[in-house]
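Example (one chain per record):
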Amino acid sequence: MRSEAGFTQNTERHFGGNLGRTLADPLSHADVYAGMQATIAVLAALQHREKTGRGQYIDVAMAAVLLAANERAHVDLEDVDTGAEPAILGATDGPQFVGLGGVRFVAAQSIVGSLTFPNYLRAMRRADLARDERFSTAEQRTANYDALHAIIQTWIFTFPDLEALDAQLDEAKIAVGVVRSLRELAETEWADYWGAVREVPDRLGGTYRLPGHPWHFSENELEETLPPAFQGEHNDLILKDLGLTEAEIEACIGANMLIRAPSPS
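Predicted structure:
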């Protein structure tokens, strides 16, 4: 679905020759986002029923979900030629740098775009670079990207630590984020405070960790994350609630239309 909705083509176009071979995004955007949008639609339908007394069916299309989640869709739909100017609105064009101690981080603004390049000049106190022919236009900055990146990287090495650098970049409204793994995030003080990761039983004698709630309420205490169900575990219960008889359920399972999860030992 990512390939059919333009995500793969955007990846190829954005990274171009920097890709040793053609690659797709490693995350399942369509499945995850469609589930989230379906949940939003259910809540909206329940609100509508509360007001009108009428329920309704909901249809969620993965392709439409990816269109809605694509922050540069307006550019692609109109076939806008931005030339050397990056059309990405998010941090996709953000350069990576290295701080003292070898800490890698990503800056959330392009060093090529005409709207964001001046922010780096303000942070570095290097207004003179705007008059440098190598960096005077987005096209020139793209052609001389390595030289521009090296200037900024050399400036970064003048800071004693990432905190001091972050304070300087913050003056120019440039956000940075340290490159770390998901497991490293899960071990942070913030993750412990938020309850970002929960340990649940695997119902086979062990445990494993799952993401916790991404939101908190101001008053209600959220329930603990429930152990995940086995595939097909609740099919019988749901189908009985829908009015199917035991014989009809068995026929569905016998025809491989449904599966019945084995009871955990």
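Caption: The longest strand covers residues 197-201.
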